[in-house]
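Troubleshooting log. The previous run stalled partway through. Resubmitting the same four chains, unchanged.
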Amino acid sequence: MALTVAVAGATGYAGGEILRLLLGHPAYLSGELAIGALTANSNAGQKVASLMPNLPALAERAILKTTPENLDGHDVVFLALPHGYSAEIARQLPEETLVLDCGADFRLVDSGDWVKYYGNDHAGHWPYGIPEMPGRRELIARSRRVAVPGCFPTGATLAALPALACGLAEPDLSIVSVTGVSGAGKKAAVNLLGSETMGSLRAYNTAGKHRHTPEIVQNLKQGTGLDVRVSFTPVLAPLPRGILTTITAPLREGVSTQSAHEAFCDYYAGEQFVWVMPAGGQPQTQNVVGTNMCHIQVEVDEDAGKLLVTSAIDNLTKGTAGAAVQCMNIALGWTEAAGLPTAAVAP
Amino acid sequence: MALTVAVAGATGYAGGEILRLLLGHPAYLSGELAIGALTANSNAGQKVASLMPNLPALAERAILKTTPENLDGHDVVFLALPHGYSAEIARQLPEETLVLDCGADFRLVDSGDWVKYYGNDHAGHWPYGIPEMPGRRELIARSRRVAVPGCFPTGATLAALPALACGLAEPDLSIVSVTGVSGAGKKAAVNLLGSETMGSLRAYNTAGKHRHTPEIVQNLKQGTGLDVRVSFTPVLAPLPRGILTTITAPLREGVSTQSAHEAFCDYYAGEQFVWVMPAGGQPQTQNVVGTNMCHIQVEVDEDAGKLLVTSAIDNLTKGTAGAAVQCMNIALGWTEAAGLPTAAVAP
Amino acid sequence: MALTVAVAGATGYAGGEILRLLLGHPAYLSGELAIGALTANSNAGQKVASLMPNLPALAERAILKTTPENLDGHDVVFLALPHGYSAEIARQLPEETLVLDCGADFRLVDSGDWVKYYGNDHAGHWPYGIPEMPGRRELIARSRRVAVPGCFPTGATLAALPALACGLAEPDLSIVSVTGVSGAGKKAAVNLLGSETMGSLRAYNTAGKHRHTPEIVQNLKQGTGLDVRVSFTPVLAPLPRGILTTITAPLREGVSTQSAHEAFCDYYAGEQFVWVMPAGGQPQTQNVVGTNMCHIQVEVDEDAGKLLVTSAIDNLTKGTAGAAVQCMNIALGWTEAAGLPTAAVAP
Amino acid sequence: MALTVAVAGATGYAGGEILRLLLGHPAYLSGELAIGALTANSNAGQKVASLMPNLPALAERAILKTTPENLDGHDVVFLALPHGYSAEIARQLPEETLVLDCGADFRLVDSGDWVKYYGNDHAGHWPYGIPEMPGRRELIARSRRVAVPGCFPTGATLAALPALACGLAEPDLSIVSVTGVSGAGKKAAVNLLGSETMGSLRAYNTAGKHRHTPEIVQNLKQGTGLDVRVSFTPVLAPLPRGILTTITAPLREGVSTQSAHEAFCDYYAGEQFVWVMPAGGQPQTQNVVGTNMCHIQVEVDEDAGKLLVTSAIDNLTKGTAGAAVQCMNIALGWTEAAGLPTAAVAP
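Second attempt completed without errors. Output:
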């Protein structure tokens, strides 16, 4: 009998992307996985046809209210809900249900960080869903609860980890991540209008104010044991999807572009969703759109005394929904890459 | 043993999209279909890694020169070549090879049309690859040669056919198709630069000068037997992919929005890649990006005495590569929808 | 002593564009014109610095509440308010004040049209601010009240008038206007988010439902005396500013591209803000951005039996604020072109 | 009698922007300044109407060949030519002609830098056209030769100078500049096509390879006397115009956001084209489009131990043509701000 999967917050961008991936998942195509309840709040009662016309296969499905009752009885539940709300719902789901939370509620280990950046009570922490981090794949495999990472932390962590773990640079990072607008979600706001975002660039939540800052720091500290300092500056750019991250850090002596490149290649040997590009290439966001890939390049800037790492991800796929499906595959013991595109919709 | 497929002109946008689709095709994933020679001209000798970094699964593959020798020995050959060149290559391929030409060489039946619009000698015509046109699916199934349709003709034909075939409007069409820039291909030209195309709109090849005009007329005449007149105006808009087509035509008496909508729904009943949207919805190109879908809406404008039909396709998928793969599936006797996404990468 | 000008609804896109133009107006630069009250509703109390950082010259100015009292005592008042609200405010302003209403309240002559399209009571009609229409310049010069035209009607009227007035085509027009997103204003709405509008195209308010339809019809009837039928289809495209209008209409016998082009050139001889482009050129919206220009081309499509006219305007300049300033100049007896750019910010 | 001005390289983006500004310059409008020869190479012989339809006021002007003869006899000559070519032409112009070179030939003081980054012989150096740098206004006023700065160096220098000059941060800068595509000029290249640049982000000329790197270092060394290190990473983003620069540098002890902000405000007190935004605001490129402004913000990131400075300019205006006109005004003893917009075409 088929496993059933529910998506809470199905009508937002993360929820929609989870559904897009599930519809192409071999387990769905073969009948092993059935798409169950799709829930939302203000959109409850409407049909997918009017809310997500990009998913005609589900056109006739009605959106239910996000309640524990409607989510009950599924083998897998994806939560794509505002922070605070995930924790509340998750608490009421059976222990044996595989719950993948795309929100922030269970990402941070440190309560102080949580309170400083999110304000409300800390719900705790779950195994963190970047399987490419040391030791995480095993944790995810054993767990029925996964905290899916934030989009910026995914691109930044995958780019920075080898640089620190392999001793290529000092743990004092300047990170600038240029992002498409879908990262801000599907909520009406004047500063996210097409008129305000097309043809314009702006930094926001600068100087440590962005909530993904402590998550990046936590990942790098856990992944390397070092006392890492991070300056994080997100920049909003006129494209729907994609994050290009640039990281500079003081170069360690004796590191060359070639040795750094080799260290990165070795670090990610065997990883299917991280591509350390051939020397000379640079990650470009259009080459990861719709995929679960992270493209990475590393270089040495001798004159400036800096290591430069760049990475590109699709914020909605590897940055959210793709990571969630990857973790689901791991937790269910399926092929990790099942249903996760690596070939991007470009141009 | 696996069937092998070659792609000539693999490094252009159409060729790249064919490869993206093949990499997700169940026959490729199961080993029934193998990707053989990838050929090009000026790019021959380079690797996919540098030419198409959106396809990391093929990164190490080298691009060969486009020659009959390099294409020989494959069961399926996709041609994504400039017009004139397809015909020359096709002539030298074995009869039993399934050849799908994404170029224009074999689309037009009438030599006069060909000479007027393309200038050189007419190569003849092959079964035309819009399976949703009356009688075409059967022709394609029996043929080893398929002329894959142009992008504009696909969106226009699917939108106009039911209007004419069901007698909803006079065969005197005003068609305006707004298109993304990838339709112009991957060739350097000042007027296609980002600076010239972002933030701007312009009509081009107006007043019957666009080469897709006779192809649209031919499809509608063949599909309805009527003496059709078409005014076709393409408009270039700042997006990579997508064609939104609007068609107005003099309304036949007694036709209402409701009766027109029902006629369209009936006409496309059973078609998996045409979605006549629920009344009130309008096709939006982002909802078909990366898919083989055509979304359609039809309405009556009483005051103006016009029928209005709108359609959205992805010019590179249903408009080119998706149609090619769909035709391949039909010609090989496979599931017609295999490997063809219906869920769009939106937003 | 300087004349003073107030702008009601100053923080919206139309209001901001009026201010941009006034700041570059020779009368402002020479001290003959002073910028007085800037008013709004929800934004009242805030400074220009935070609301319109594109206008640093006014950074320290505070926004007042939109009330007749705050607008009183100015020589010129621009109203950039929601429909219904303009009329209410206008009624309370002194007769001798020059009032330019950028809203719809006083555009339509026919009460039936008004009620059908806007729903509430008809406020009446004022001289209509397209000075290039026959006889309008004189009316505007004598009036202290001007109804500034809608953006779509401006592009469509200027393109269609000569075609009908010179007998080049039948008065049965199919108009498709592709528009940037700023036309929808600066109000939060999910379907106007960057994520929903970038990378996508969609028609909206189709089949006669758009409120600018009766305004276009009215202009063409008044300007030609003919019984005009108009099918109007607006299409939303991913750019901030610009409207590209395409018009097809049944061709009158004996009309050639050359004779049509000459008729258009003659019709607009002496007009500074209409450029009938040299034969072979096509209007492109980036070439009018920030200007008060309308670029036009006309062609004959023999095979289709259609006349094709295309035009480009900036919806916020010639389409709204530029027209308003042009009308102010006329009504004040100033040089009509004062402060109105013709050189576009391109690319 | 009017001064005459010639523009060499008039049909490129920099040349076109110079013309746009001149057409709105009060000296042009009053007849004091006449636009003389417009020259180019491959476009010579064509009319402005077909090459730059955004400048209808010059539509009938023909483009001449770029030769010393055609440029001779003008009081002011703007050079917007490829590097190497400027020097060759400049050498042949009379000493008393005011020559403003928008190319790189005379920007760098150090021959070694020149050879390393540009490869050919060093032509020497001219007074450098950022009037806001200490002592430069006076040099420009006395000179008949001005090296107009590069676009990236303008945004980076204006942002970094106060941080270093006021001792707010260590002279060890990580600069990431996100730029629109017009900075790459109007030359056909596949990687600058709309298809390749819309919807995508990529870093390029990374790790010290960009030619603007030594220019930034030179400016900061000259402006502060410090031994400055600069890591510079340009990122290409999907918009026509605009550069958003983010700079991080190790924070000096005792510096707060408030004290840094005050230092910046003091540093630029009296400068008309630099706007240190009110605390809390962030520069946004759309708010400088078409203007000669640089918007700046500065903040302290305590946790990261970094100073963060952000700036926005229009690469074609303050970044090139606006700076050129500003320098012309200074060198001619005119009002420095004449003809230079501060109100941006936004949205």
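Takeaways: Chain C touches chain A through 21 residues (CB under 8 Å). The CA atoms of residues 101 and 252 of chain C lie 38 Å apart.
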